[in-house]
Every structure is written in C-alpha cells, then in structure tokens.
Amino acid sequence: MKFFIDTANIAQIKEAHDLGILDGVTTNPSLMAKEGIRGEEAIAQHYLAICELVDGGDVSAEVISTDLEGMIEEGKKLAAIHPNIVVKVPMTKDGVKALKWFSDNGIKTNCTLVFSAGQAILAAKAGANYVSPFIGRIDDSSWDGVQLIEQIAHIYSLQGFKTEILAASIRNPLHIVKCAEVGADVCTCPLDAILGLLKHPLTDIGLAKFVEDAKKMQADTAAVK
Ligand code: E4P
User: Which 8-state DSSP code applies to residue 167?
Assistant: First the structure.
C-alpha cells in the first residue's frame, strides 16, 4: 500500500518525506486555502514546490470548475505544471466526462468525493487512475467507510478494473491499518495519523530499559579497562 500525505503544508510534507515512506501528496481547495495560497500564479508555484519536494511521487491538484469545459481547461494547465501532477476531478456527470477526456488525452486523474460503490464503478469505467472514497466523512455520518473500501476492492478485483483505490479522509492510525487490511492501494493521511502508527507504550518502556542496561554495560566495560 502506498502512503500519500493529505496536506498542502510544505513543512508537514517535508517531515513525512524525511521519514522515507512518502509516495505522494493529495491536496484539495480547502487544504490549499488553509495555507493562504491565493491566485492562479501562487497556486501553480505551490504545486510546483510540492512536486519538487516529493520528487517522483504523484501530487493531486484539484480543479475548481464544475462544468466540463472549465475542468478540461483547468486540468490541462495543472498537468502542465509538472509531470507528477494528477488532476483531481469531482464525481459528477461533467466530472465523469472530464475523467474520460483526460484518460483519452494521457492526463492522470484522481476521482474525488466518492461515497458509494456505484460512483467507484463509474470512475473506473471513465478511466480514472485513482478513486478517492472519503472514509472519515462516511464514518462521520454513521456509515462504515472501511466497508466501502472493501466493497470497491472486491468489485475492482472481480471486474479487473485498473483504477487504484486511494482511501481518503483518513482520521486516525486505525483507519490506515484497516484500509491496508481490506486492500486499499493507497492511503492519503494527515501527518498525525502517519506518526500515530509509530506509537506503542511497550516500545517506549522496552527502549527505556535497553538504554538503562546499555549504560550499565558501558560502565562495566570502563571498569575492565
Ligand atoms: C483527499 O483527497 C481528500 O480531499 C481529503 O482526504 C478529505 O479529507 P477530510 O474529509 O478530512 O476533509
């Protein structure tokens, strides 16, 4: 399973990249706005900075238009910023048409705002490279987000769809583990959820004991000399 970070914050992307486990980045208009990015030029510069930082990993950049022509024009501009840009397109009627157009024209896509297996089938049929089911938002409305990932994984495998399942709207480390268990191809996570995977109290207790005993060992070595 690939690890993407779900942020437009350069410091957080750098921290995940420095861990050595980062395969890509997803952004959305809310995440970009949160970083204070304003205007077409600044948006393009920010995407470029992210692409150069992750070096080789896919970077999802979302279209803001909601009509087919607007999405195509915007998507072409986004794709021209850097070869690793993946154009993020919403799951709407025009979005499906845009996915097909991008697929026919060699531009990589990520179909976003997916909340059902039916939508995931449409995204795959339209040639999306990634499909993004929002599991945290599904859980927030008392449905089971991980179950949707499992259902889509089952359908894609039965039908031979090549679209990669990108589990999005991850809220915690357990979401990541569960998504890995049911066959997500990618998890896009906030930095906290990634770092949460590190945590176990027995690791901390065990390491403290090893460090303490290592000091004794060093003291004994000094005494022998
Ligand atoms: C990423 O592709 C999605 O836009 C993002 O994961 C949505 O997350 P949220 O539900 O926490 O806003």
Answer: E
Give residue 216 CA to ligand 1 midpoint distance, Å: 49
Q: For the chain, first and last CA: distance in Å?
A: 51
Protein residue whose Cα sits closest to atom 5 of ligand 1: 169
Q: Does 172 contact ligand 1 (Cβ within 6 A)? A: no
Each residue of 179-217: pLDDT tens digit?
A: 999 999 999 999 999 999 999 999 999 999 999 999 998
Closest CA to 102 of 60, 134, 52, 135: 60
Establish whether residue 26 lines the binding site of ligand 1, counting it when its CB lies within 6 angstroms of any ligand atom: yes
pTM over 0.90: yes
Give the span between the Cα atoms of 25 and 4, in whole angstroms. Answer: 5
Determine if ligand 1 sits within 6 Å of the CB of residue 27.
Answer: no
Specify whether 88 is catalytic: yes
> Do the beta carbons of residue 145 and residue 134 sit within 8 Å?
yes
